[in-house]
Write a structure and sequence with these properties.
This protein has 183 residues and is an alpha/beta fold. It is 42% helix and 21% strand. It has helices spanning 16-30, 45-49, 56-67, 84-90, 117-128, 157-182; strands spanning 4-8, 35-39, 70-78, 81-82, 102-109, 133-141. Strands 1, 2, 3, 4, 5 and 6 form a six-stranded mixed beta sheet that branches. Strand 1, helix 1 (16-30) and strand 2 form a beta-alpha-beta unit. Helix 1 (16-30) crosses helix 6. It is globular and about 40 Å long. The chain starts with a strand and ends with a helix.
Length: 183
C-alpha cells in the first residue's frame, strides 16, 4: 500500500516548490515510508484542461491519490493562489476524493505577501474534498531557496526544520493509523 503521495503542481520542471517536495519525499523515504509521485505537469495537458476522466493517465493519478493515506501537496504561489495546473488536477478528483487523508501543504513564492495563500486558497479546496487534517503549511520565499551551483535549490535551515517537523508529524499520523488498523 502506498502510504504517501507527493503531488507537485508546478508547471516548471525545475522549481522551488518541487525542490521542497523532493526534500519532503526524501525525509519520508528515510523513515521507510512508501512514497509515490505525481508531477501534474507530466499529465496530458489536454486531458487536464478538458477534464477527461476517461484518460488512462488521469485515472492512474487519481488511483494513486486514492491509495495514499497522506499527501504532500507542493505548489508555487502566483497572485496569492496556488497554480492553475494543480487546480485543474484537484478538479478531477471525486468530491470525496480526499476523505480521511492527511495533507502536508508546501508552497513557494516571491515574497512573504503571499504567506496566507495556503490557508485562504488551498486549504478550502482540500477541505471541500474531505481532507481529515492539514498537518503542515510550509511556505518559503525565494530568498529561502537560492539556486545552488548544480542548478537546483539550496533549502534554508529554517525551512528544512519546518519540513522535518511536518514530516515527523505526518510519520506519527501514519504510525497511529497503523496501530488503529491492527487493534
Amino acid at each position: 500500500m502506498t502510504e504517501v503521495v507527493v503531488i507537485t503542481g508546478s508547471p516548471s520542471a525545475n522549481s522551488r516548490s518541487a525542490a521542497l517536495a523532493a526534500h519532503a519525499r526524501q525525509l519520508f523515504e528515510g523513515r521507510g515510508v512508501s512514497v509515490e509521485q505525481i508531477d501534474v505537469k507530466s499529465l496530458p495537458a489536454e486531458d487536464l484542461l478538458h477534464a477527461n476522466f476517461n484518460s488512462a493517465e488521469i485515472q492512474a493519478a487519481i488511483a494513486k491519490v486514492s491509495a495514499a493515506r497522506l499527501l504532500v501537496v507542493a505548489t508555487p504561489i502566483y497572485k496569492v493562489a496556488y497554480s492553475g495546473i494543480l487546480k485543474a488536477f484537484l478538479d478531477l478528483l471525486p468530491q470525496d476524493g480526499l476523505t480521511g487523508k492527511v495533507v502536508v501543504s508546501i508552497a513557494s513564492g516571491g515574497s512573504a505577501a503571499h504567506l496566507l495563500a495556503l490557508d485562504y486558497a488551498l486549504r478550502p479546496v482540500l477541505a471541500s474534498l474531505g481532507v481529515q487534517s492539514v498537518i503542515g503549511n510550509i511556505y518559503a520565499v525565494d530568498s529561502q531557496l537560492p539556486r545552488s551551483p548544480n542548478g537546483g535549490y539550496h533549502i534554508d535551515t529554517e525551512i528544512q526544520r519546518r519540513l522535518d517537523a511536518a514530516v515527523d508529524a505526518g510519520f506519527e499520523q501514519l504510525v497511529r493509523l497503523d496501530l488503529a488498523l491492527t487493534t
